[in-house]
Design a protein that fits this description.
The complex is a heterodimer.
Chain A: H1 3-10, E1 14-15, E2 18-22, E3 29-35, E4 38-43, H2 52-66, E5 71-76, H3 89-98, E6 100-101, H4 118-121, E7 136-140, E8 148-153, E9 158-163
Parallel strand pairs in A: 4-5, 6-9
Antiparallel strand pairs in A: 1-2, 3-4, 7-8, 8-9
Chain B: H1 11-33, H2 42-70, H3 76-81, H4 101-122, H5 128-156, H6 160-173, H7 185-192, H8 199-216, H9 239-254
Classes of the chains: A alpha/beta, B mainly alpha.
């Protein structure tokens, strides 16, 4: 198998918390190398404390064992921090269809060190993944997982999650 | 400079420094996690649990690296669960009991303002693995700073009761802020090797940013006290750290080697 084929095999590994996405389209897999019989896979955690990482590491090993690789080494690399910019457009659309508002394609850098007063501190509107309305407001900067924030749509009166741009 | 090309003379100092950074994050993360299930309302409960998780993530990355620098095969878990209080290098501020919500938020604000500046500077660290972790942690810490400074404004410029509680927390915590910027011989070695940043410059920026938010929050910046708490970085801790470790390390102490 070539590294490209290994990468293709890794698209079978899903994010356990957002099962519509695979780890390749999320930009978590940074590099795949074959050294003799051993496959090395570099992954970049979305968040340092992401509890899904261990499950993902185990799934990578299991998937590649299923393809006949007995030796699989997964490396966590931080040297370039993960950003939502690495998510493919297709992944963003899948997120939206799943009911999670995707991050904008080119995320502006995270909030200012000294945030402006509430009224102006909010970034661009986050469209509701259900009805598309921009009449939404953030109810919490934190959600059920580290990567998400909680929003509420005033138009369709539904709560939804937003995948934070980082 | 990375793990392979690391100057052997720098190794002990770097190990100590990574413990300082990792222990701050670990102990603060534990204090935040104590709120899980006790937050003032659901969204804030979730927020505090998220902040705790970020801190534990930073601690794991930093302590893993510390173990690698030390080169004795210790993992992040070994360092977290098998050291005693006098081997911990965290500042005393993070080990203080969680107090009321205003205390927790005020501490988070003071610490996050420091950590954002520190991680921002550490992105340029000459030790590449540390620069990588700092770049990642910075993105998360900015959310902590934003969250806690918004809360400072809410509490300070809120009701009489919330203002009083935030001011009390600030007055109590102020004497623990000096320790964040202390420079000892270990740190001086690393600053000279451009592994760690100039702490004096950091402190000036920190003051400026913290004071700007406090002013907006209508809170009074405390006078510098005659005595600033010190000693955490040398293993001298308040009585609270032992109690915290008793809880955090209980399982590993009672059942050595136990795994999930």
């Amino acid at each position: 198998m070539t590294p490209a084929e290994i990468l293709e095999a890794l698209t079978e590994v899903r994010d356990p918390e957002i099962p519509v996405l695979n780890i390749v389209e999320m930009g978590i897999v940074r590099d795949v190398r074959l050294e003799g019989e051993t496959v090395h896979v570099d992954i970049t955690p979305t968040y340092t404390g992401c509890p899904a990482m261990r499950t993902i590491e185990a799934a990578i090993v299991q998937t590649l064992r299923g393809r006949g690789f007995q030796q699989v080494v997964v490396h966590k690399v931080f040297r370039e921090p993960w950003t939502t910019d690495w998510m493919t457009d297709e992944a963003r659309e899948k997120l939206r269809a799943y009911g999670i508002a995707p991050p904008p394609p080119r995320a502006d850098e995270a909030p200012d060190l000294i945030p402006l007063p509430f009224s102006v501190a909010r970034g661009p509107a986050v469209p509701c993944p259900f009805c598309g309305s921009e009449q939404t407001r953030q109810t919490s900067a934190f959600g059920s997982t580290a990567c998400k924030a909680l929003f509420f749509c005033e138009a369709c009166r539904q709560s939804f999650e937003y995948f934070k741009a980082i | 400079m990375n793990l392979e090309t690391l100057d052997a003379a720098l190794r002990p100092a770097l190990f100590e420094y990574l413990l300082c950074l990792g222990d701050d994050a670990l102990i603060l993360g534990h204090r935040l996690s104590e709120w899980c299930g006790h937050g003032p309302y659901l969204e804030e409960d979730i927020a505090l649990a998220n902040l705790a998780l970020d801190c534990l993530g930073h601690a794991e990355a930093l302590l893993t690296l510390a173990g690698e620098v030390e080169g004795k095969g210790r993992t992040a878990d070994d360092l977290a669960f098998l050291r005693d209080a006098y081997d911990f290098r965290n500042v005393q501020m993070v080990e203080l009991p969680r107090g009321d919500f205003a205390f927790t938020i005020t501490r988070q604000f003071l610490f996050a303002a420091y950590a954002c500046l520190l991680y921002e500077a550490l992105q340029q660290s000459a030790f590449e693995p540390l620069a990588g972790i700092a770049a990642k942690a910075l993105k998360e810490m900015r959310y902590h700073l934003r969250h806690s400074s918004e809360w400072m404004r809410c509490l300070g410029d809120g009701t009489e009761e919330s203002h009083r509680r935030a001011q009390t927390a600030l007055d109590e915590l102020w004497m623990y802020t000096g320790e964040l910027f202390e420079v000892d011989n270990t740190l001086r070695t690393l600053i000279e090797a451009r592994v760690a940043p100039d702490m004096a410059a950091l402190q000036l920026k920190w003051r400026e940013q913290v004071e700007a938010v406090l002013r907006e929050a209508t809170l009074t910046v405390p006078e510098d006290p005659p005595y600033m708490a010190t000693g955490g970085r040398r293993g001298h801790h308040t009585e609270h750290l032992g109690h915290l470790l008793a809880e955090m390390q209980f399982l590993q102490r009672a059942y050595p080697g136990a795994q999930w």
